[in-house]
């Protein structure tokens, strides 16, 4: 009987696993054959998020030169490197182009087809354009993967879950707002992938409250402005008359930081320095476990500071008051924030050159404006300053921090615990929108179609409407008939609308305190409540506690997602090989 592998999810992660299976098969599997079943209602390669059937107005949030699906020699993995083109090389684009998502979908389809073509003879890939509903079977035997609209299951020796972002049931607060909207004839759009939301219910000229100022908001902004016929002439927006008026706020009250708009020159910071494999091993070996805020965050803070100051001292020494070697030696010995702060104050005269993570994270803390209009002007100034800084190599210490964030995320993946709020903090600093999108925000603000609400935006339902307030402008509030939650659903197992994850949890798969599926950080096997790995079930992706940064990997950054894909592929091939050898011996 030919071995059977089922991969649920045929998007970028499923495609990455397929590529690693092809790369590792010559070494690990010389069997008579293997059937690989890809289960996904969306096209193989692109999946749901990157499918070609979406608006051409929606861009990627990374430069084309920073998007690759292929490994290089910076990836610490056991399998072979198989290099391939970045998006910009494959599409013959300028490296600093922000490609639209339909083009990325075509790139992913090509990567999928190349991976299939590189599989050894006798390995066959089957695509099932359906949803997977549940998995049954004991750990000792074959698994059954039940598909929508199919009476009999797929039988599998192994199952790999790579399903990406999933819809979720609303939490109690969201459910209450949705019920109020139904009772009063209002519009409430819950967290969703914006391209799939029905935006036709948002009427021209009417105010719309938007909670969320990240990448989902950018998509919403684009689809409700250019998507409704408006256009830009330079820094001026010319409306079509079909746009609503967006009132946007969030916990921070500001948009994500713009992508950095210049290239790296000179030496890179030697990372990891204070949070590397040795520190991860020590944390994992603690018999009483570890607390992210108490035990991990100080290492994160010191690592990011090291990356920042390495760049400042080596690229801009005229703005420092001591040699780098002296600073580095003393910085390594500092025992806490107070001691590090005193050293930095002495070594870096200008406060603007110092790294203040708390101020970066919450720039509106304590900020108060006496009028709504004063805040609009103030936040436009904040965005203009961010754009200027993120495109000025005089502030290239910011790029050092970006590299530090990538290094830190790679280590946190090994811990299997990224800490509450870490992913959002990373995205806010390192995975923001293209600079042109922030310039569009400014144009829409000047046109009166985008209004800023402030930090810690609170939404209440009263008097038959939604009302938004913020302590940033204490005497202001706005009421509207429509509320949009501009963010992806939280990747929680227990509230996943897809029955697959809920059934896994009911079958014994463990869930973390923040709702993620627990997996072995080494090879992605799903863990049960006692921490035992399931021998036949693997999972990778944003709903696991081994989630990785961003959707794609920058070339030559070590790519933790590549390392995970490789580990899963090798575990799968080793299992199939050993099973085949056992049958032959019997």
| Structural class estimated from helices and strands | alpha/beta
User: Main sheet?
Assistant: 6 strands, mixed
- Distance separating the two termini: 14 Å
Strand order of the largest sheet: 3-2-1-7-19-18
Strand portion, in percent? 5-15%
The level of helicity is: 25-40%
Tally of separate domains: 3
Our Rg estimate from Cα atoms comes to: 25 Å
The first-level CATH class of the largest domain is given as Alpha Beta
Q: How many strand units?
A: 19
**Overall pLDDT:** 94
From the spread of the alpha carbons, the general shape counts as globular
- CATH architecture level-2 label of the largest domain: 3-Layer(bba) Sandwich
Uncertain runs are: none
Q: In the CATH scheme, what's the topology name of the largest domain?
A: FAD/NAD(P)-binding domain
How large is the count of helical segments? 16
In CATH terms, the superfamily of the largest domain is FAD/NAD(P)-binding domain
Region (Disordered): 524-562
Pfam families: NAD_binding_9
Domain FAD-dependent urate hydroxylase HpyO/Asp monooxygenase CreE-like FAD/NAD(P)-binding: 6-165
Protein name: FAD/NAD(P)-binding protein
Task: Please tell me about this protein's structure.
By secondary structure, this protein is an alpha/beta fold. It folds into 3 domains: about 5-170 and about 490-585, FAD/NAD(P)-binding domain; about 170-255 and about 435-460 and about 480-485; about 275-430, no CATH class. It is about 35% helix and about 15% strand. The chain is built from 16 helices and 19 strands. β1 (about 5-10), α1 and β2 form a beta-alpha-beta unit. α1 (about 10-30) packs parallel to α3 (about 100-120), α1 packs across α16 (about 560-585) and α7 (about 290-315) packs antiparallel against α12. The two termini are about 15 Å apart. The model has no long low-confidence stretch (mean pLDDT about 95). InterPro entries: FAD/NAD-bd_sf, HpyO/CreE_NAD-binding, L-asp_N-monooxygenase_NS-form. This is FAD/NAD(P)-binding protein. It comes from Streptomyces albidocamelliae.
């Amino acid at each position: 009987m030919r071995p059977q592998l089922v991969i649920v999810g045929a998007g970028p992660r499923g495609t990455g696993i397929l590529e690693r299976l092809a790369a590792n098969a010559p070494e690990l599997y010389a069997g008579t054959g293997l059937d690989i079943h890809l289960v996904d209602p969306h096209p193989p390669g692109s999946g749901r998020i990157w499918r070609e059937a979406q608006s051409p107005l929606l861009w990627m949030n990374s430069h084309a030169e920073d998007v690759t699906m292929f490994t290089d020699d910076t990836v610490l993995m056991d399998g072979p490197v198989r290099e391939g083109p970045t998006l910009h090389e494959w599409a013959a684009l300028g490296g600093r182009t922000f490609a639209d998502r339909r083009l990325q979908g075509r790139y992913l389809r090509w990567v999928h087809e190349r991976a299939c073509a590189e599989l050894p003879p006798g390995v066959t890939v089957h695509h099932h354009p359906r949803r997977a509903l549940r998995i049954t079977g004991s750990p000792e035997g074959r698994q059954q993967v039940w598909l929508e609209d199919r009476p009999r299951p797929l039988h599998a020796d192994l199952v790999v879950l790579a399903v990406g972002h999933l819809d979720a049931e609303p939490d109690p607060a969201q459910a209450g707002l949705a019920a109020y909207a139904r009772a009063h004839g209002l519009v409430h759009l819950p967290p969703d992938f914006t391209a799939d939301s029905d935006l036709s219910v948002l009427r021209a000229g009417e105010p719309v409250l938007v909670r969320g100022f990240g990448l989902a908001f950018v998509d919403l902004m684009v689809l409700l402005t250019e998507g409704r016929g408006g256009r830009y002439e330079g820094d001026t927006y010319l409306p079509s008359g079909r746009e609503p008026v967006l009132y946007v706020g969030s916990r921070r009250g500001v948009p994500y930081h713009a992508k950095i708009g210049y290239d790296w020159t000179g030496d890179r910071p030697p990372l990891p320095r204070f949070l590397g494999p040795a520190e991860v091993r020590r944390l994992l070996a603690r018999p009483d476990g570890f607390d992210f805020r108490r035990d991990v965050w100080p290492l994160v803070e010191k690592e990011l500071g090291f990356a920042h100051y390495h760049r400042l001292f080596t690229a801009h020494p005229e703005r420092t008051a001591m040699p780098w070697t002296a600073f580095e030696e003393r910085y390594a010995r500092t025992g806490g924030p107070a001691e590090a702060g005193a050293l930095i104050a002495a070594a870096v005269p200008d406060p603007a050159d110092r790294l203040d993570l708390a101020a970066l994270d919450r720039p509106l803390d304590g900020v108060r404006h006496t009028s709504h209009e004063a805040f609009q002007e103030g936040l436009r100034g904040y965005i203009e300053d961010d754009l200027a800084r993120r495109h000025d190599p005089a502030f290239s210490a910011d790029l050092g921090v970006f590299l530090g964030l990538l290094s830190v995320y790679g280590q946190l993946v090994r811990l299997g615990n990224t800490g509450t709020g870490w992913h959002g903090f990373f995205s806010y600093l390192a995975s923001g929108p293209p600079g042109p999108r922030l310039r569009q925000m400014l144009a829409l603000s000047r046109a009166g179609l985008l209004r800023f609400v402030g930090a810690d935006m609170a939404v209440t339902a009263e008097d038959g409407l939604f009302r938004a307030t913020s302590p940033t402008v204490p005497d202001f509030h706005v009421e509207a008939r429509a509320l949009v939650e501009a963010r992806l659903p939280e990747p929680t197992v227990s509230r996943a609308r897809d029955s697959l994850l809920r059934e896994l949890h009911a079958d014994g798969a463990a869930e973390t305190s923040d709702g993620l599926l627990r997996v072995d950080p080494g090879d992605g096997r799903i863990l049960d409540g006692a921490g035992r790995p399931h021998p036949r079930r693997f999972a990778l992706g944003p709903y696991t506690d081994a989630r990785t940064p961003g959707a794609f990997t920058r070339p030559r950054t070590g790519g933790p997602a590549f390392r995970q894909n490789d580990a899963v592929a090798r575990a799968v091939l080793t299992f199939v090989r050993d099973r085949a050898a056992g049958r032959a011996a019997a």
